[in-house]
Amino acid sequence: MRKPSRPRPAAGVSVRQAVPLGLVLLALCGCRREAREVRLDPPVAAALAGVAAMPNGIGGRPPEVYFVLGKPYRGNAYQLSEGKRLYAWFGCPECHRDGEGSGRGPSLLDGWWNHGPGIETIYLSIRDGRPGGMPPYRTRLTHEQLWQLAGYVQVLGAYSASAAAPGRSDQVQSRPAENRAPARFAPLEP
Amino acid sequence: MRQRVVADLSGLPISGERHSSPSWWGTLAFMLIEGTGFALAIGIYLYLAALAPAWPPVMPPDLAAGTGVTLVLLASLLPNALLSRWTDAQDLRRVRLGLLVMLGFGLVPLLLRILEFGALNLRWDDGAHGSIIWFLLGLHTAHLLSDLVETAVLAALMFTRHADNPRRFGDVRDEVVYWYFVVATWLPIYGCIYWAPRL
Amino acid sequence: MTGGWQSALAPGGSSADAILRLFWPTVALLGLIWLAVLLVLAAALLRRARPEAPRRAGAVVGAATAGTVLVVIGLTLASYLVTRPISAAADAPLIVQLRGLQWWWQATYPEEGEASGFVTANELHLPLGRPVRLELSAEDVIHSFWVPNLAGKQDMIPGRDNALTFTPTVPGVYRAQCAEFCGLQHARMALLVVVEPPEEFARWRAVQAAPATAEALAAEGRQVFERQPCGACHTVRGTGAAGRTGPDLTHLASRGTLAAGLLPMTRGALAAWIADPQTLKPGNNMPLVPLSADELQALTAWLASLR
Amino acid sequence: MTHDRRDTGLGDLALEAALRRVWAAAHGLWGLLATVDHKAIGRRYIATAFGFLILGGLLALAMRWQLSHPEARLLDPDRYNQVFTMHGSNMMFLFAVPVMEAMGVYFVPLMVGTRNIAFPRLNAFSYWVYLAGGLLLWGAFLLEMGPDVGWFAYVPLSGPQYSAGKRADIWAQMITFTEISALAVAVGLVVTVFKQRAPGMTLDRMPLFVWAMLVTAFVVILAMPAVVTASTALILDRLVGTHFFNPAEGGDVLLWQHLFWFFGHPEVYIIFIPAVGMVSTIIATFCRRPVFGYLAMVLALVGIGLLAFGLWVHHMFTTGLPRLGESFFTASSMAIAVPSGLQIFCWLATLWGARPRLAVPMLYVLAFLFTFVLGGMTGVMVASVPLDTQLHDSYFVVAHFHYVLIGGAVFPLLGAIHYWFPKLTGRMMGARPGRWECLLVFAGFNLTFFPMHILGLWGMPRRVYTYQPELPWAGLNLFASLSAVLLAAGFLLFFWNAWRSARHGAPAGENPWGAPTLEWATASPPPPWNFTRIPVVGSASPLWDSMGELTVAEGLRTDRRELLVTSVMDATPEARESSPQDSIWPLLAAIATSVMLVWSIFTPWAVVWGSIPIAVTLIGWFWPRGTPEDES
């Protein structure tokens, strides 16, 4: 440590404190939640399509590359916000509203997942569609976008909010924001 | 530099009272900071109200709890004034009593405040109107709460060996001034939340 | 020294002209004052000091302060006088709705008399000599519309409606660039403004209002466009593609630039853009859609024919 | 109470020994962490702020590198946006405001002739909170989660929908940290100036720097709550879904801009007014005469402070507010030229009647006059609504505010560091490197920033991470970037000079410049108690009018930290007041506050649970210990 009677400690102290505090911050927040990866290499993006699905399309295993990337579609704030944008841009609210659902599409908030809550299943539901009116989106979204959207839908229906979840929209509000766990406030499926 | 003694200060009191006490001025400065904060919050309220096509967008808050708080706060002015007088007289026994009474007058509005949040008929995320009235109420509640803690600490202090001391009485005096401030800032907020929507 | 097609010093419109006529005299006056201060400073340092009667110094300081007051009043008045005509409403202006989005511009020409309305992107055409009223709005965050050669800037603010009125007086192509920081690609949000004689403008407007005409070779590219996700975001009038979140591509090839001023409109640039949009403009909302070489070839050929 | 020890009749050595016993900080790390000496705090404040200046300067160089040629790829857009946001936020909130207040923390108590700042524990607390805010911001940046929304963080870009993650929250909470610290210092300064002036220092005998810091402190008190309110509302919008800035739910996007600039414009004067005080101080000393027109100077300072609150809308001329209202703000914005001009005329009048010694501080003052007056002229231009619609948010504005902030505040600050360096360290700062450094900084600055005026007129918007080769900006940008190297070299020389002089500089006596104010009436650097006996003041330039003999008062106790409280107007002695002892509690309270503030980015419950440790540390802070300082 430093000689105690030194009269001008400020700069030294700040540097010395920066290191441990920085490590603590690192541990606390995790860079992964904040990183902004705007471009995937095309082979990586292509590999994202390789979900090992069960024959009935329910359940399965995400491709290896999803884990190699660090599961960004579940816990990365930027990817989730992209998913939120896609949710609005690609017509999801027409049937699912802001997640509450309507006569044309089920609620995404009520904790009831018709085909299971796993992200790979949600991905498959969006990609391939489901009987009962859910159209396939594979021709309208890239695989990366499908994953972003799936991650967002999963966060939307989560019971405990993730710190990476998006905040409210600049729109008329119909439910608590994603980072306030709207699912907790949603009525259960009748 | 050579020094030449031209004044003897030894006759001065060893701690200042009121405007010759730095902490009295410090309290004023903090009141100025917080008063600016309150003024800005009320400014935001008026700005949003002026912008809205209809204000309030929903029914105005129920009057009972807020009015109750107002009455309690107004009633507290009397014991607060008495406490101020006893402090000037450095009457330790009565100052203790006064602080305990003020503790009560700090606690009751806080309890009523819980009802008040319920009586707003709005949540903080029910539009900008809900946001700003929760903000105003929250801001004032923070002041009530911090003043309550301060009063409690002072009251406890007055029962210790540190009590009978001009400096402690100075602290109580600052606390009295601060309570006036807490009451004074409530009145415009009360007007904004409860009466502006009824105009 | 006038700085070309995105410069406040080369006016091609009424507002920019009026502002420049205020600008130079202001610069001259303030420059003179600055020089005078420096001269007095230099004199004060160089002269051999004599003890000055303080009263005289007081009078000089008082006079200089009074002079400052006069300059301030004069400039305030001048600025007010210039503001009035700039913000005045015009008679029978051409109305164009311009919307700022992250990170491009959407222009809507409403129906006007014979001419039918249409939507286009990243390029405005304005008739020479006719006042134009741009109705400015924002889709997401604040943007600011600024064609320095034509007029001062005006912000596009979510939840508020702004307008900008001016008259183009010199034909030419001017460049505008978003002037309020709007996120990742703020630097890549440009727009061309083409000021042209009224006849040419009318011709342009008629072409833009019509649906796309696809040529024989390009029919294959159209299929690629419709088979791939392109149509989910983009509209090409006359085809099935009717997406609304991306720019209207009906007459893409008639525009001077691609991706909000990023690249010149050539077939090569189109190919580069479609093949890897996130390298050219990282973070923009166009995804990388994997295409085969043949598909890319056909698609760009077709897009390049959308005049 | 009758047998307390007094300084009456003690010899100098015995008195100093007695004062050392009660005023000196403890040895060791504990002493460093617990000290409440305004000089120790002020020094570490200044050093930390200059540390942040270096970091912010490195960011500036990175930006200049990126912009030196079109389509450069040194920084990707995401990093560039973080870099300019960090540069602006860092320079405004972590360098400029803190360093100016720090100069006040160090010198105001000395200049008014007292032994410590009022509320010294609050002062220590403010430093720790400031340091925590700086570490928060820079820690986030190093983790690639630095804010990227610009230093004024306009909503909706910084709002919940368009700024994913915690970047904008970190920015908003950093604001709260630095504003708490600035407000705490302001309270201490106001009360020090009001109540702790040496006997006889009536208001019209106060040094102009003290006046400047007093006005600044009031501007801080009235302006900073606006930005704390705004950033709190932003965090609430982002975290719990309030709608202050959501137009679809009755909120308003421009509300942010009103609140921010109601603080943001006075902020410029918070930085500039102390610099004006420094200029007046330096000019008086090196002209060997008081600044001409004391009353006019004071009125000008107060006038600037008042006008500062009437012109925030000139940052919003392009937002489409009603034109008539905008014209009013044109008038008020230009009106600030009147008090500013008055001050410049008074300085010129002072120089006119004197033969100034062109020592290094004075050279910086000349650089200041050249640069700041030019920046003031462009300021008048951007105050005009029609001109501003062309100049706003372009590189012209970038040039303008650097002229005002670097020319108007940093040049005087560097001069002031040279001027007060002997007092801070006991050694003179090298004059020969000082002249070179001044020349380099002055030339480098003007060559870097003057071309930006032209770039702005040629249509270059600010905050662009690159530009295309078909735009005619490459030449001037390259020129500016190369000149920036010159500017950086000047700063490097300054830091090297300061570092070397602190170790090997020529020892300075009490008053090496022959200056007139009280800080020069004590040792360099001053002892922990500042003045062995409290000076008694009979004029505005006490050391010039005292004929080499300082009139002092005696009768203060030596068995506790005691200082003198005087009346606000006439500084007649009113009481002997104790000054608090060293304490670790301010540091603990700052840690508790920091934990609460950072935690509350993530959950609103942090405000509830995080307040408990704060309350505990505050009780520990104020609970009396039975020391002579605590009891009367």
From TrEMBL, chain A:
Determine the domain of life of the protein's source.
Answer: Bacteria
Q: Which PROSITE patterns match?
A: CYTC, PROKAR_LIPOPROTEIN
Q: What are the start and end residues of every segment in region (Disordered)?
A: 165-190
Pfam families per record: Cytochrome_CBB3
Q: Write out the entry's keywords from A to Z.
A: Heme, Iron, Metal-binding
Fetch the Gene3D superfamilies from UniProt: Cytochrome c-like domain
Record domain Cytochrome c: where: 78-157
Q: Which GO terms describe its molecular function?
A: electron transfer activity; heme binding; metal ion binding
For this entry, the protein name equals C-type cytochrome
Q: Which organism is it from?
A: Siccirubricoccus deserti
TrEMBL record, chain B:
Name the coiled-coil region(s).
none
GO CC, one annotated term: plasma membrane
Report membrane topology.
Multi-pass membrane protein
MF-aspect GO terms: cytochrome-c oxidase activity
GO BP term (any one): aerobic electron transport chain
Q: Where does this one sit in the cell?
A: Cell membrane
Entry keyword set: Cell membrane, Membrane, Transmembrane, Transmembrane helix
The transmembrane segments are 28-51, 63-83, 95-112, 132-157, 177-196
Q: What name does the UniProt record give this protein? A: Cytochrome c oxidase subunit 3
**Residue ranges of every copy of the Heme-copper oxidase subunit III family profile domain listed in the record:** 25-198
* Main localisation: membrane
TrEMBL record, chain C:
A GO BP entry: ATP synthesis coupled electron transport
Q: Cytochrome c domain location, by residue? A: 216-307
| Main location (coarse class) | membrane
Q: Tell me the Pfam families matching this sequence.
A: COX2, Cytochrom_C
Offer an example of a GO molecular function term for this protein: oxidoreductase activity
> In what residue span(s) does the Cytochrome oxidase subunit II copper A binding domain sit?
91-207
Q: Could you tell me the keywords of this UniProt record?
A: Copper, Electron transport, Heme, Iron, Membrane, Metal-binding, Respiratory chain, Transmembrane, Transmembrane helix, Transport
**Where does the source fall among the domains of life?**
Bacteria
GO CC list: membrane
According to UniProt, the reaction catalysed is: 4 Fe(II)-[cytochrome c] + O2 + 8 H(+)(in) = 4 Fe(III)-[cytochrome c] + 2 H2O + 4 H(+)(out)
Where exactly are the transmembrane stretches of this chain?
22-46, 58-82
Give the subcellular location: Membrane
Membrane topology per record: Multi-pass membrane protein
Q: Function, please? A: Subunits I and II form the functional core of the enzyme complex. Electrons originating in cytochrome c are transferred via heme a and Cu(A) to the binuclear center formed by heme a3 and Cu(B).
Assigned protein family: Belongs to the cytochrome c oxidase subunit 2 family.
Q: What is this protein called?
A: Cytochrome aa3 subunit 2
| Species for this entry | Siccirubricoccus deserti
The organism's lineage is: Bacteria, Pseudomonadati, Pseudomonadota, Alphaproteobacteria, Acetobacterales
Gene responsible for this protein = coxB
TrEMBL record, chain D:
Name the source's superkingdom: Bacteria
Q: Name one GO cellular component term.
A: plasma membrane
Q: What's the chief localization of this chain?
A: membrane
Keyword Lipid biosynthesis in the entry? The reply is: no
Question: Single GO molecular-function term?
Answer: cytochrome-c oxidase activity
Q: How does it sit in the membrane?
A: Multi-pass membrane protein
> Which reaction(s) are listed as its catalytic activity?
4 Fe(II)-[cytochrome c] + O2 + 8 H(+)(in) = 4 Fe(III)-[cytochrome c] + 2 H2O + 4 H(+)(out)
According to UniProt, this protein's pathway is: Energy metabolism; oxidative phosphorylation
Q: Which Pfam families match?
A: COX1
Single GO BP term: aerobic respiration
Q: Where are the transmembrane segments?
A: 45-67, 91-112, 124-143, 170-194, 206-236, 268-287, 294-315, 327-351, 363-383, 395-417, 438-458, 478-496, 608-624
Question: Where would you find this protein in the cell?
Answer: Cell membrane
Any idea of its EC number?
7.1.1.9
List the CDD domains hit by this protein, alphabetically.
Answer: Ubiquinol_Oxidase_I
What positions does the domain Cytochrome oxidase subunit I profile occupy? 17-538
Alphabetized UniProt keyword annotations: Cell membrane, Copper, Electron transport, Heme, Iron, Membrane, Metal-binding, Respiratory chain, Translocase, Transmembrane, Transmembrane helix, Transport
InterPro entries from the entry?
A: Cyt_c_oxase-like_su1_dom, Cyt_c_oxase-like_su1_sf, Cyt_C_Oxase_1, Cyt_c_Oxase_su1_BS, Cyt_c_oxidase_su1_bac
Could you say which protein family the record assigns here? Belongs to the heme-copper respiratory oxidase family.
Q: What does this protein do?
A: Cytochrome c oxidase is the component of the respiratory chain that catalyzes the reduction of oxygen to water. Subunits 1-3 form the functional core of the enzyme complex. CO I is the catalytic subunit of the enzyme. Electrons originating in cytochrome c are transferred via the copper A center of subunit 2 and heme A of subunit 1 to the bimetallic center formed by heme A3 and copper B.
PANTHER family given in the database record:
CYTOCHROME BO(3) UBIQUINOL OXIDASE SUBUNIT 1 (PTHR10422:SF35), CYTOCHROME C OXIDASE SUBUNIT 1 (PTHR10422)
Q: What is this protein called?
A: Cytochrome c oxidase subunit 1
